[in-house]
């Protein structure tokens, strides 16, 4: 089986060539005993046990970890810690039915992953080597342990996956811009399409340190301004969603309205992202035959960027676009 996993700063996404898929926040926390013995378990988040030659660990992953005051997130502009990255990857692989119940007659799956464009050249070989050596017994939510290791590992640049995910939607010729907005970074690429094949323009491809997190930080700052108390990082995503939907946050018997701050931050961050991109694309921006918005951030900033970049479309299922594209690149097919 071919497993494609996109371990993002905000969310981990995975798809397989057999039709499995999963997505959860890229957050982990120490596991603790359930004093209610599952009575109030609503199936949100996961409890993951991992056993390797170096030891064992048990963690909460995803939504379940968000409820912990000890929640661990990836940090902006920093390389993802290997132990946390690999725990999220193994969890996604298990949830997508990778691995086998026996280490003797094991089924080794192929794995494809991505790296932000700014890290790709320097880290792709290091990541490939580490994941090629990764092996562990994994159990999720108390289910039977499975032995997970990978036969072949491939690493592709993020953004390229999103473009390939378009499949037959790509035009036969012309110039295409790709804007892939994540939690901390935005990858952008410019392609000339010749005979149906995308050819990157190296001087117009790059990464900007701007993404969803800047809006979350602005909302957190406004929350603290109104309440005098900091907004816990584990609540950033929920607070942003509530602000967008015009729902106040209840805090100390008060309703904290953050909608106007959300709209202002959305506009400012969207224009910041556009400014970084246009600095490299230059006058080519006006000649785009298609602009593709991908990544989770496209959902948040699309309405701002649509006014700046012409002939815009959204990648199907934008959150999974890179994972689906990696799958197609690895398998050489046009379907996930």
CATH topology of the largest domain: Nucleotidyltransferase, domain 5
Instruction: Provide the low-confidence segments as ranges.
Output: none
CATH homologous superfamily title of the largest domain:
ATPase, nucleotide binding domain
Q: Which architecture name of the largest domain does CATH use?
A: 2-Layer Sandwich
Q: What count of helical segments does DSSP give?
A: 9
What overall form do the CA principal axes indicate? Answer: flat
Estimate what percentage of residues fall within beta strands.
25-35%
Helix content: 25-40%
CATH secondary-structure class of the largest domain? Alpha Beta
Question: What is the domain total for the residues?
Answer: 2
Number of strands: 18
Radius of gyration, in angstroms, nearest whole number: 21 Å
Distance between the termini: 12 Å
Please trace the helix and strand order, writing H or E for each element. Answer: EEEEEEHEHEHEEHEEEEHHEEHEHEH
Q: Could you give the order of strands across the largest sheet?
A: 3-2-1-8-10-9-5-6-4-7
By secondary-structure content and strand pairing, the structural class works out as alpha+beta
Average pLDDT number: 89
Features:
flat, six-stranded mixed beta sheet, Nucleotidyltransferase, domain 5, 2 domains, single chain, 336 residues, 30% strand, 32% helix, alpha+beta, ten-stranded mixed beta sheet, 18 strands
Please describe what this structure looks like.
- With 336 residues, the chain is α+β, with helices and mostly antiparallel strands.
- The chain starts with a strand and ends in a 5-residue tail after the last helix.
- The protein has 9 helices and 18 strands.
- A hairpin with a 4-residue loop joins strand 2 (11-16) and strand 3.
- The protein has 2 domains: 2-157, 2-Layer Sandwich (Nucleotidyltransferase, domain 5); 170-315, Nucleotidyltransferase, domain 5 (2-Layer Sandwich), CATH 3.30.420.40.
- The longest helix has 23 residues, at 259-281.
- The chain has helices spanning 63-66, 82-95, 117-133, 160-164, 212-227, 236-244, 259-281, 297-305, 321-331; strands spanning 2-7, 11-16, 21-25, 27-30, 46-52, 55-61, 72-73, 109-115, 135-140, 146-157, 174-181, 186-194, 197-200, 206-208, 249-251, 254-256, 290-294, 312-314.
- The mean pLDDT is 89.
